[in-house]
Amino acid sequence: MIELEVKLPDRPGSLIELIKPISDNGGNIHGILHHHDRIENNLIPVSITFELNEITAKKSLEKIKKELKSKNIEITKLFINNDKKSAIIILIGHVFDTDLLDTINRLAKSGFFISELQAKFTDFEDISNVKLKINFSDSLTKQDLIILLEQICHEKDLFLISN
Questions:
Q1: Which domain does 117 fall in, by range?
Q2: One-character DSSP codes across the chain
Q3: I want to staple 133 with a disulfide (CB 3.0 to 4.6 A). Which of 47, 50, 116, 126 is the partner?
Q4: In this predicted structure, what is the pLDDT of residue 82?
Q5: Is the CB of residue 85 less than 8 Å from the CB of residue 1?
Q6: What is the CATH number of the domain that holds 8?
Q7: CA distance 37 to 59
């Protein structure tokens, strides 16, 4: 799994410029997250998570980086998780009302990366469910993840279920 963060101009069509080189080089995109809360100089940080074929991954990634550079798309972070360590968790409660993006950003700052997100939307006043697949490297453990999530859930009055 690869997580790439770039800065894109806040204009129509800029996301396509990011996706096209990944797709053209065999990338299977798992998720895209726009960080509109961190816009600076009309540039929005965008995180995109994708997989590449293991046999051609190194060559494909180099092509992607070269194509993005030719389009003046600045790569601010590149994380390659070959470890395949992951956990599935479910957050239950007022997940959206308590700022899901803040939760995701706090996980990312600690080295945990969201590779999948599934949500059950309800009326604003009702309880919501969000299922996350979270990847992490060998330097972190599932226990590290659970401790962080328990802190976040305690602050936001959410219920945590983990595998």
A1: 85-162
A2: -EEEEEEEESSTTHHHHHHHHHHHTT-EEEEEEE-GGG-BTTEEEEEEEEE--TTTHHHHHHHHHHHHHHTT-EEEEEEE--S-EEEEEEEEESTTTT-HHHHHHHHHHTT-EEEEEEEE---TTS-EEEEEEEEE-TTS-HHHHHHHHHHHHHHHT-EEEE-
A3: 116
A4: 64
A5: no
A6: 3.30.70.260
A7: 34
| pTM reported for the whole predicted model | 0.56
- Judge if 114 and 68 occupy the same domain: no
How many domains does the chain fold into? 2
Q: Scanning the structure block, which residue is given the tokens 């798992």?
A: 30
